Amino acid sequence: MSWPLAANLSLLFPELPLTERVAAARQAGFDGVEIQFPYDTPAKQLASALAAAELPLVLINLPAGDFVQGGPGLAAVPARQAEFDAALAQALSYAAEAHPQRINVLPGRQAEGVERASALDCLVANLRRTADAFAELGIGVCCEAINRLDIEGFLISGSTELAELIAEVDHPNCSAQLDFYHMARMGEALPASVAVLAGRIGHVQFADVPGRGAPGSGEMDFEAALNALRQAGYEGWLAAEYRPAVAAEAAELQWLVQWRQQGWAKAGEA
User: Fold this and answer.
1) Which of 34, 188, 241, 252 does the annotation list as catalytic?
2) Alpha helices per DSSP H over 17-138
3) What pLDDT, in 10s, does the model give residues 209-266?
């Protein structure tokens, strides 16, 4: 089994404007793209760039409020329900024009003064509402765990916590987003992470550890991780969400060629 590869345009090709990164991803041989928060770019403009490059938009994040600035975000904060509702409405409007295949809802950090149980209850309810809303557009919803070494206080940080969350949401349009980098940073063996989430994985992202660089720049055993995905029957996308080294993009993309040679990635134009 091999998988299509998506370029995360929030991190890759940073020297270019966002819409030009789409064409760069196509030229590099990626099969699709994902973007963390594309909302500063008009949806019609992004859709036009995607159509010109003949690439699908695989995933975007729901707006997350102050999360990027160090705050708790929106999805698991009961006092911010109105802000979450506005973010959901914004994402629905954007998605209607940009047509992502999936929307990722970030759990965010546990807010000061909010008990974990209350935060989780809020997150579960918001994931169900989001899954209902996007089901009408034929768009899947996912949620991810992020390691607490890079982001202290993140609400969901390991594969077991993520599996428990998805089970609690119990919605056919809500799945787990598995990020190899974050699970490895939490000290998990990736085959074990895959096993815990097997049957619930809707999207996979990757970067090497410990530096979140391109595959081959660190210590991650990608062969073991991808073999585990094969055994789990995963049939979705693999998305490259790593930080490229300065002026080394072309050299770093050798991993993509190697992955195709090894049969991990679908044959493309690279």
Assistant:
1) 241
2) 18-28, 43-53, 81-98, 116-135
3) 999 999 999 999 999 999 999 999 999 999 999 999 865 455 678 899 899 999 999 8
Residues 139, 94 contacting (CB under 8 angstroms): no
Query: Two tokens at 105?
Result: 């809802």
57-61 and 32-35 strand pairing: parallel
Phi-psi region for residue 199, left (φ > 0), alpha (ψ -120 to 50) or beta? left
What are the tokens at 263? 């049969």
pLDDT in tens, 7-59: 999 999 999 999 999 999 999 999 999 999 999 999 999 999 999 999 999 99
DSSP string, 65-96: TTTTTTS--STT-GGGHHHHHHHHHHHHHHHH
**pTM score:** 0.96
Q: Identify whether 241 is a catalytic site residue.
A: yes
Domains of the chain (ranges, CATH numbers): 5-261 (3.20.20.150)
144 in active site: yes
Q: Which of 144, 168, 219, 252 is catalytic?
A: 144
